[in-house]
């Protein structure tokens, strides 16, 4: 149930205090008690003239707790939690926003004919003014047909659907091989519709008597699964003298829906009015909107939601730990396998390395021996050739007293090897620095010997250190000069 009323334009907290104690007093008789959830929504405000306070139009909504719990339990069975419980009247208004009667500001009633009840919403000047629920629906129609024609529930339901598709000129319909007179069906259904009309008139009279109503209801919009019940629209229009039409909630959408060929969306659109209104409100929730979810249910669902969030966090946490543990275990296996492989390769290569080391050491020893032999043999050859070459150059009047040497390698052994590898064909020779001492009859004899040495291709860097007279004394003292010459001998 819902009803519109006017209260002083105050802050929401002040309105809460006013309605917390007096809200049920504004609703129709029989609505109240501890088993009802009540909420309100400010649907409009009127500014007062002068210094007076304005007036706020407030929609009070009440719903039975048992009905709310049925919906909440149904959602829980599907694994869902209710975030908000909206009022049917506001969702139906949302579904038909933009309808020409509503935009004109007319007092229009929206009838949502369901399976076991009919929701009635009175809308005027774009806001819900009153709503109620009547005990009329498709189940009552099915029961009336079953009683009239002695049918089971399935047969009566099939007859109801078949006659709802019958045209105005149809005389009879056939179901399961049995023919039914359309006139008799109309008479049976109209007797049922009379009860609905009586309830509507009482509700509209209540609305018209309230001080908040601006005018009486003059139009009806049919919605819900029973909106196209046989003869309902023309019967309501004729008996209540109102404009009546079957509403199409999809008409307010900025695009046209299309579906499979088996579904006629234009024909089935009235039954989706409430669902479409809820969806549209959920897409753009408004601050201060009605929420009939009881506080106890909200707290319970908050705990459930927190528990689910905690479980998800725990699952993620332990999942990450399991992943890290798996990666560490895999890493240990990998590195252990690599270490085993390295040990195997080391065991295979160790004998080869030891053998290579032994061969290298043996090679060094052999090279040292070869160098020693070459040095010994080369030294003898150098001295023999040096004595021969120098001796052949000594002129008459000159004799030698001493020849000494200072041998050095022009290129060291390692440098020689590198030079030989870098410059193939290069020969590495050695120089022998000789010091030649002797005596001569005269300085001219020494000069001839010096020139002979300088012209020899085997002698280079010939240098006379000194030439001087012999200073021997005694009876057998020699006469002449003594000299010392340095030169480089190339074998």
Automatic annotation (TrEMBL):
<dbReference type="Pfam" id="PF11104">
    <property type="entry name" value="PilM_2"/>
</dbReference>
<feature type="coiled-coil region">
    <location>
        <begin position="349"/>
        <end position="376"/>
    </location>
</feature>
<keyword id="KW-1133">Transmembrane helix</keyword>
<keyword id="KW-0472">Membrane</keyword>
<feature type="transmembrane region" description="Helical">
    <location>
        <begin position="313"/>
        <end position="329"/>
    </location>
</feature>
<dbReference type="InterPro" id="IPR050696">
    <property type="entry name" value="FtsA/MreB"/>
</dbReference>
<dbReference type="Pfam" id="PF05137">
    <property type="entry name" value="PilN"/>
</dbReference>
<keyword id="KW-0175">Coiled coil</keyword>
<keyword id="KW-0812">Transmembrane</keyword>
<dbReference type="InterPro" id="IPR007813">
    <property type="entry name" value="PilN"/>
</dbReference>
<dbReference type="InterPro" id="IPR005883">
    <property type="entry name" value="PilM"/>
</dbReference>
<protein>
    <recommendedName>
        <fullName>SHS2 domain-containing protein</fullName>
    </recommendedName>
</protein>
<dbReference type="InterPro" id="IPR043129">
    <property type="entry name" value="ATPase_NBD"/>
</dbReference>
